[in-house]
Amino acid sequence: MKHRVVVVGAGFAGLQAVKDLKGANCQITLIDQRNHHLFQPLLYQVATTLLATSEIAWPIRRVLRNRSDVTTLLATVSGVDVALREVVIDDDRRIPFDTLIVASGARHAYFGNDRWEIDAPGLKTLEDATTIRRRLLLAFERAELTEDEAEREAQLTFAVIGAGPTGVELVGIIAELAQRVLPDEFRRIDTRKARIMLIEAGPRILPAFPEKLSTYAAATLATRGVDVRTGLPVTSVSAKGITLGEQPIAARTVIWAAGVQASPAARWLGAPADRAGRVLAGPQLTVPGDDAIFVLGDTAHVESKGAPVPGIAPAAKQQGKHAARVIRARLAGRAEPPPFRYSHMGNLATIGRNAAVIDFNGFTLKGRLAWWIWGIAHIYFLIGTRSRLAVALSWLWSFVSGHNSARLITQKETLRKLD
Amino acid sequence: MKHRVVVVGAGFAGLQAVKDLKGANCQITLIDQRNHHLFQPLLYQVATTLLATSEIAWPIRRVLRNRSDVTTLLATVSGVDVALREVVIDDDRRIPFDTLIVASGARHAYFGNDRWEIDAPGLKTLEDATTIRRRLLLAFERAELTEDEAEREAQLTFAVIGAGPTGVELVGIIAELAQRVLPDEFRRIDTRKARIMLIEAGPRILPAFPEKLSTYAAATLATRGVDVRTGLPVTSVSAKGITLGEQPIAARTVIWAAGVQASPAARWLGAPADRAGRVLAGPQLTVPGDDAIFVLGDTAHVESKGAPVPGIAPAAKQQGKHAARVIRARLAGRAEPPPFRYSHMGNLATIGRNAAVIDFNGFTLKGRLAWWIWGIAHIYFLIGTRSRLAVALSWLWSFVSGHNSARLITQKETLRKLD
């Protein structure tokens, strides 16, 4: 019987591992609770009406249609029976494995305030993105509809909590929506008066970037009408708004971009984890004491050259590659490759039209050129010609016409009542 | 003060009326419960993974951004106060009018079996389309996952009830999905064995077309693996399947394309209606006894040359045009135009790749040429260059590559429990 590899999660890490196991003569089962692989680095553009959902997500089985060695299952993992070497999915069905790769990702972390999630959704899935898009657009609609001045102001106040790349990118596009895309479509409100807040508890935005790029980003956002607030934590979130330190701010749209929490992989595996719930991975990315179980990507705490590896797509892909290399070596009876070493390519973030920051290991770039490089790099990393064409068309259209093409409000707002 | 026109519904009829009132020196309020105008003739392609939602829907306020005389409100109409000349929206707010146009469309009709809707959704809104798409794709996923042979067969049985153009177009693409798009992506099931049923209680499919086109369509569908059943009504629908006459058929995916029911406009207006709930419109498309209230499109029963006008997009547009013409004549103090006359351009329906039927008032066409004409006509009627490019790209891609680009399963299945 062929060696059975079960991969949980078809994100960047899991999908890369599956790809790199091509021809390794094993029987692979890939399990994900979604039917699509998602290009998360552009998810914020779906949330902010620039891209459509179908442009950054691909059916997993379509990506792997030529891989007869891979069976894809749409199922939710409820646990792992480490002793019996089985993954447990819906209805207590069991999928046996010889080697297991757990790359099940992360969700937002609310640092003990999980009830904030309803009013301050994070951005990890397509549903998250359409929820945020719906709230953004509904806020403008409700502002247009209301006769109450205070309510109008609250509807036109948008608060993004957390100023890493995602937070910065979100406010950048929201500002463009309010300043450039929407003004001539409303009759009773001036969308340019919308208040867009970027809130960071730490001392500066984009903390992972060199300080001069943080300063540039903050200044650029300020000239585009974003109210950047650093140094004060959000102390409460409700349907009405937030409290910043001691100050209550009425904001009907709040987005959470502040932290992530790993999937329950540590619990499934009974393995030690760090504070964010990430399983502590060994030098070959396996669980300590169990060489046949790999943990990759956002669900793993991986160290390289003495520092933790960041939770970004290139790092996840490198880990997927490494796991596949280790498995192939073992199956071929060769010596295992040397321990995983993370190669950092750099940090990128857009700030809005014609503005981005790039830090390539100390070589920094900002402004228009950085923005174009950012765009070309992201087009390149998309899967398939169809998506590249579609995203390029959407971006070009938005750039030339000043209109965003994905501005539908769909699904009802069922989670919360606003007033 | 300017003449106040309130338009309820931004479908084909309402939007056309607003467009044709350009420069008429009135103050227009357009109310819709959605933020988008929807190109319903292609909605079935969203339901069947060929097109993305954003390709056939446009934000209403974007379409009307240059019309400073139009205020668009995203709101739900709860009634009309005919005596006070006010439309009542959410929260009992009132929008006064001098002239009212009600073009609020229709929903599916289940002929007294409203509880069937949960298990046999119809196709009127984008949410309907994504619900049907989710169920279609989940059925294949569940068939791949299950170990139970009977369950697998039920998951791979798809029943479309009603064989007008929508029903025929739906089964045409579902058959293509099963036969051409999906087979190489599944490992445990053969999607080509899926059973796709088109069910019509009447004696033939496409009853509005000449009989020879019905015969051609039925024969074409049969060669593509569709099980066409005419002459027997569906007598029950549940989560498990349907009963056709006396025969129970296990089918986990059931789609309703059998009938429509007008919006509650007749109740709002206290006006007489036909059996489908459509307000009986007079020769100028106004409510009998109230010249200032127009009823248009699917929400109206309009007669022309002694026959009822069909519920299709060109008819709705012509009615919108006529209403605007009457209003302009009145405002200018001119004589009103002659009563509304419907000009029938023809009936079109696709049956799948390279096959369509067209009936231009007796001149009929079928097959490949009809299919191309159908496609070009629909591209032409889309709004805006962006949509035309996007839809053309999606169609071209699907035609050339054999893959459909909108195959995401999003949102949870919350309405019903399957087992």
UniProtKB/TrEMBL annotation, chains A, B:
Keywords: FAD, Flavoprotein, NAD, Oxidoreductase, Transit peptide. It catalyses: a quinone + NADH + H(+) = a quinol + NAD(+). Its EC number is 1.6.5.9. It is an enzyme of class 1 (oxidoreductase). SUPFAM superfamilies: FAD/NAD(P)-binding domain. InterPro entries: FAD/NAD-bd_sf (IPR036188), FAD/NAD-binding_dom (IPR023753), NDH-2 (IPR045024), NDH2-like_C (IPR054585). One of its GO terms (molecular function) is NADH dehydrogenase (quinone) (non-electrogenic) activity. Residues 4-320 form the FAD/NAD(P)-binding domain. Residues 344-402 form the External alternative NADH-ubiquinone oxidoreductase-like C-terminal domain. Belongs to the NADH dehydrogenase family. This is NADH:ubiquinone reductase (non-electrogenic). It comes from Aquamicrobium aerolatum DSM 21857.
